[in-house]
Design goal:
By secondary structure, the protein is α/β, with parallel strands linked by helices. The chain contains 7 helices and 23 strands. α1 links the parallel β2 and β3. Bound molecules: flavin-adenine dinucleotide.
């Protein structure tokens, strides 16, 4: 595509733009295609597979294959197995091919501003005009690093789980993992085979049984309708999200591999103090403290609050008509930021944007580019 003659001139215009080509962006593109629109999907990375290739090597889904599909394409193979990370990458790759959408990789959106009666989406290479934008950029690019007692004074290594790949890199060390969720438990148990590991959690770790009366918990939550309930605000307020467990994690943690302690009260150099007054030497603090929405390209638009969180209700911007979100945690339900949940949310957001009249197909997009082209 040629460069714009003027930096503020759109190169072309599109029915809709989706930012990000992970599961959320691809599900959004699917919903837009079903609504008869021709979206352009802009993806910063080299492939339309989201952040999955960057997750740790041993990652096996907590959701069985049958609850890890995306709209219109079932997850292949035995529906009751728990697929490995790399199978999700393959599945997303297949899904992107199966979608009849214009996906442009190597295109990071830097800013979005208003103009031409809608939005101007700027990737540095091109400026696209559109009446409708769906932001689907996940949180992996924005790891959450909370303020913790004494951490600023820690002279050892501080790592966020987004940088964790395999346990060998920590062999023989004393690692304190901060967090009580699935990643903390999974990584803690595998790391405890190679290193001395302590889980530091504000509240005791809680567990959700993977299988209840012979059925996976996902069967229960979809069958009983829990997946559809708008219980996000209540769950968000709970001190810990239960670890999905077939019994392995609870047994390991109960046996002290890894050990579990309440959150430390202070750190001095590499000496960490526990609430009971005991001090220990620690090599690494591993933060399994989650992620926050990664939306810096919406700052100038004024679509975010002072914490960088989107001003939205159920995935619809409350500040900007024609702007929607897919893949936010608790966006509409428990399942919102999961493989099984994004399709439903994407359908809802697209329907509402169109019903609000903010996204009528004003223009068919510029000539289609082959996947991978900048
Ligand atoms: C360790 C871990 C385990 C998980 N296990 C499961 C599980 O078992 N089952 C399940 O259903 N869910 C699971 N999830 C939750 C969720 O399904 C994943 O986090 C998923 O990757 C989120 O998809 P997404 O498309 O919203 O975001 P991402 O996968 O992060 O994709 C966002 C995309 O946006 C792109 N992007 C970012 N910024 C820009 C920009 N400015 N311009 C253009 N492109 C941009 C990125 O390159 C990326 O490709 C897990 C999450 C984690 C972290």
């Amino acid at each position: 595509m040629s460069s714009p003659a003027h930096p503020n001139h759109p190169t072309s215009s599109c029915d809709a733009i989706v930012v990000g080509a992970g599961q959320s962006g691809l599900a959004a593109a699917h919903a837009l295609r079903r609504a008869g629109l021709a979206p352009v999907v802009l993806e910063a990375g080299p492939e339309p597979v989201g952040s999955w290739p960057h997750y740790y090597d041993s990652l096996t889904l907590f959701s069985p294959a049958r609850y890890s599909s995306l709209p219109g394409l079932p997850f292949p193979g035995d529906p009751d197995r728990y697929p490995h990370r790399d199978e999700v990458v393959d599945h997303l790759r297949r899904y992107a091919t199966h979608l009849d959408a214009d996906i442009r990789t190597g295109q990071r959106v830097h800013t979005i501003r208003t103009g031409d009666g809608g939005y101007l989406v700027d990737t540095g290479d091109q400026i696209l005009a559109t009446p409708l934008v769906i932001a689907a950029t996940g949180g992996f690019g924005n790891p959450h690093r909370p303020t913790l007692p004494g951490l600023d004074a820690f002279t050892g290594q501080v790592v966020h789980v987004s940088d964790y790949r395999a346990p060998e890199q920590f062999a023989g060390r004393h690692v304190v993992i901060v967090g009580a969720g699935n990643s903390a438990a999974q990584i803690g148990v595998e790391l405890a085979r190679h290193a001395r590991v302590t889980l530091a959690t504000r509240a005791p770790v809680t567990y959700a049984p993977q299988v209840i009366l012979g059925r996976d918990m996902h069967w229960w939550s979809t069958t009983l309708g829990v997946d559809h309930l708008p219980i996000g605000p209540y769950l968000r307020a709970t001190p810990t999200v239960p670890v999905v467990d077939d019994g392995t994690y609870r047994a390991a943690i109960d046996n002290g591999r890894p050990a579990r302690m309440p959150l430390f009260t202070d750190i001095d150099g590499t000496s960490l103090t526990w609430p009971d007054g005991r001090a220990e030497q620690v090599d690494t603090v591993l933060l399994a403290t989650g992620y926050r929405p990664d939306l810096p390209y919406l700052t100038d638009l004024g679509a975010l609050d002072e914490h960088g969180l989107p001003l939205q209700v159920r995935g619809l911007s409350t500040s900007h008509p024609g702007l929607g979100y897919v893949g936010l945690e608790w966006q509409r339900s428990l399942a919102s930021a999961t493989l099984r949940g994004v399709g439903r949310d994407a359908g809802y957001v697209v329907r509402r944007l169109l019903r609000n009249g903010s996204a009528l197909p004003a223009a068919r997009c510029c000539e289609r580019q082959p996947a991978g082209a900048a």
